[in-house]
Amino acid sequence: MAGPMSQIMGNAAAAGTQTDGQLSLPNSLDGYAFPEARLKRKMQNTSKTPLLLVACGSFSPITYLHLRMFEMAADYVKFSTEFELVGGYLSPVSDAYRKAGLALAEHRLHMCEIAAEQTSDWLMVDPWEAIRKEYTPTAEVLDHIEHEINTVRGGIEAEPGTRKPVRVALLAGADLIQTMSTPDVWSPEDLDHILGRYGTFIVERAGTDIDDALASLKDWKENIYVIQQLIQNDVSSTKIRLFLKREMSVRYLIPAPVIQYIDQHGLYEDDGTSSSVHEKEKDKESKGVPPEEISEAEASHS
Fold first, then answer.
1. What are the DSSP E strand ranges found in 47-166?
2. H or E segment to which residue 203 belongs
3. Neighbours of 263 (CB within 10 A)
4. CB under 8 Å, gap of 24 or more: what pairs does 286-292 form?
5. Is 154 helix (H, G, I), strand (E, B) or coil?
6. Rg of the chain, C-alpha, whole Å
7. Percent of the chain at pLDDT above 70?
8. Which of 71, 129, 139, 150 is the most exposed place for a label (fewest CB within 10 A)?
9. What's the rounded Cα separation, in Å, for the pair 170 and 88?
10. What confidence tens digit (pLDDT) does each residue in 59-110 have?
11. For residue 93, what is the DSSP state?
12. Contacts of 295 (CB under 8 A, 6+ apart)
C-alpha cells in the first residue's frame, strides 16, 4: 500500500525478520538492534530540517487510526512546514506499564510489526521500550531514538560529504496535550524535556477541545504542531477490546493480519490475557509486588 513516502522509501524491507510466517523480534536487550531498514538515507531538499516522528503507546491492539496518524502527519509536514520527513517509529510500552487490557509486549510488538510491514512502506517498530523490564518514560524513549539517529549514525546525509542532525518529535493524539496541561500529571522537567527539546505533532481527535490546553502550554507553542483530522476517526484500542470481548466484528477498524493474529492467540478474550499455557506461566512468574503506580496519561500511551 503506497503512502506519501513511497517515492523516497522504495521497497525497503521492514526492520523485523520473518521466518515461517512469524516475525522474529528480540526478547531482550542483548539481542536488540535499532531498526533502520526503512530510514531515509539522504535528504531530498537540504534547505529543510530532517524530521523523524515517534509514536509511543500501548497499541493493544494497534488500530488504523494509529497508522493513519502518521499519514496525516506526513501530509502536514509536506505542505505546512519546513521539515522533511525521514522516518517514523512505533514504540510500544513494556509489560511494566501494568495497564488494564494490556496484552503481553511480545504480542503487541508482533501486531505492530505486522501492521507496519503489511500496510506501510515507511513505518518501523522499535522494540527497545517494549522489551525492557522496567517502565520507560516517554522522554527517555525520545532520548534513546535521538541517540541512535544522531549520535550513533551521525544524522542524515545532506550535501555530498555533509550530514545534518535529525529533529526527533513525538506524534500523539489530542488527548495527550490535554493531560500535559493538567496539573500534577506530568512533571515540569518532563514537559520541558519533551516539548522544549523535541516538540510534538498533535492529531486532533473527535470531541476533544485542545484550545485551553494549548493556552496553558504557551511556553512551548513554537514546538507544538496541531494537525486537523479532515476525516474524523475516533477508533480506539479500548473500543476494539470491548468489541472483541463482546464477540463483535472489528473488520475494517484494524488491519486484517492483526485480526488474524488476535484470533490465533486468543487475545482480549479475558482482559487481554492470551490462552497460551506458556504465556500464563510467564504471567505467574512476573507477578509480585507491582511497581510504583504509573499515571496512564503521563506516558502518552493510549
1. 49-57, 83-92, 123-125, 156-157, 163-164
2. strand 200-203
3. 11
4. 286/95, 290/98, 291/96, 291/98, 291/134, 291/135
5. coil
6. 19
7. 79
8. 71
9. 10
10. 999 999 999 999 999 999 999 999 999 999 999 999 999 888 899 999 999 9
11. P
12. 185
CA distance 53 to 68: 13
Q: What is the pLDDT of residues 51-64, one digit of tens each?
A: 999 999 999 999 99
CA-to-CA distance for 228 and 42, rounded, in angstroms? 29
Instruction: Give 276's contacts (C-beta < 8 A, 6+ positions apart).
Output: 265, 266
pLDDT higher than threshold 60 for residue 292: no
Q: Output the CA–CA distances (angstroms, integers) from residue 95 to 108, 230, 244, 281, in the order listed.
A: 10, 34, 21, 15
- In the chain, what are the helix, strand and coil shares in percent, each to the nearest 5? 40, 15, 45
pTM reported for the whole predicted model: 0.83
Long-range contacts made by residues 13-19, C-beta under 8 angstroms, separation at least 24? 13/37, 13/38, 14/38, 14/113, 14/116, 14/117, 14/124, 14/125, 15/113, 15/124, 15/125, 15/126, 16/113, 16/117, 16/125, 18/117
Q: Give dist(CA 141, CA 194) in Å, integer.
A: 10
- CA dist 221 and 29 (Å) reads 36
Measured CA angle at 85 (ends 80, 86), to 5 deg: 175
pLDDT averaged over the chain? 84
Tell me the backbone φ, ψ of residue 73, rounded to 5 degrees: -65, -40
Q: How far apart are CA 233 and CA 173, in angstroms?
A: 11
Phi then psi dihedrals of residue 278, to 5 deg: -60, -45
Residue with cell 522489551: 131
Say if residues 51 and 86 touch (Cβ distance below 8 Å): yes
Q: To 10 degrees, the CA torsion angle through 296, 299, 301, 302?
A: 40
